[in-house]
Specification:
Layout (H helix, E strand, L loop, with lengths): L1 H10 L5 H32 L2 H15 L4 E7 L4 E6 L5 E7 L2 E6 L2 E8 L1 E9 L2 E8 L4 E7 L6
Antiparallel strand pairs: 1-2, 2-3, 3-4, 4-5, 6-7, 7-8
Length: 153
């Protein structure tokens, strides 16, 4: 019976302290690499694409759609409002600043907010080119120039 117990003790397939320490070190290294990858992805996400960038590009897309079939475009009131008249319509659209919002109005009735969280806006019209300069509340500055094709009759 003594031999059977001794043989069972020698044949046990358990972990040794050295094996456990090696597996612990491998686990710590993998966890550290995972944390570095997650940190890098978070940093890249913040540096490449901010909320201001997304809202700005959506604003640009919305404004670009307004510049088709234009009869006349004018900049008013200290360069903070533009008015657009269309060829086949009696509607006149205005884009202006109200507080921290750039909004779109049709015939001075109601409005649709286009860009929220701005500090300053300026519209400049030079020939057929309209430049929109926007400063956000966090001091980020965006500027875009649009070509406005006017239909002369």
């Amino acid at each position: 019976m003594y031999r059977a117990k001794r043989r069972n003790l020698l044949n046990n397939k358990g972990f040794t302290l050295l094996e456990a320490l090696f597996q612990f070190v491998v686990f710590i290294l993998l966890a550290a690499i995972l944390m570095m990858v997650v940190s890098w992805l978070n940093q890249m996400n913040q540096s490449l694409l901010t909320d201001d960038d997304v809202t700005w590009e959506l604003f640009v897309q919305d404004v670009q759609q307004l510049f088709s079939n234009v009869d006349e475009i004018t900049v008013k009131e200290k360069s903070e409002q533009i008015e657009i008249a269309y060829v086949d319509s009696v509607d006149r659209k205005q884009i202006d600043r109200y507080g921290d919002v750039i909004r779109l109005k049709t015939n001075d009735k109601g409005y649709v907010p286009l860009l929220i969280g701005i500090q300053k806006v300026q519209f400049r019209l030079q020939g057929d080119f309209l430049t929109i300069y926007v400063e956000f509340q966090d001091s980020v500055v965006k500027e875009r120039t649009f070509f406005v094709q006017k239909n002369y009759q």
